[in-house]
Known about the structure:
This protein is α+β, with helices and mostly antiparallel strands. The chain has helices at 5-18, 47-52, 116-123; strands at 29-35, 44-45, 61-71, 75-86, 89-102, 105-113.
Amino acid sequence: MAEHPNVAIARAMTDAINRGEMQRLDEFIADDVVWHSIGSPEPIRGKEAMRAGALGGDDYQITVRLHDVVANDDHTVALVEATAIRGGRTLTYRTAEIMHLRNGKIVERWAFSDDTAAITAFFA
């Protein structure tokens, strides 16, 4: 059975992150995306804001291990283990990344983690 195209998008995003090609993520994100970040009370709205925020972080390195991913025509859920390095510190955490997709682009994303407080403090 062939892999669902939205699973392939999650895998391609993981590959781009692990290669440090954060600008490549841009091709998977809709112009009017709503991006709910862990620990942030308000989502980032729009691809331009993403470039300045979530995709613009150049003071850290992150690698991702995709534990599992399931998808249908509208949604993708990825179970992820991430390791971030910033300022000589390292944080490993797990998330469930839930993405609503339309025409091969993420239009809304939520993430839920095993330690929101640690993630918020690490990236503050």
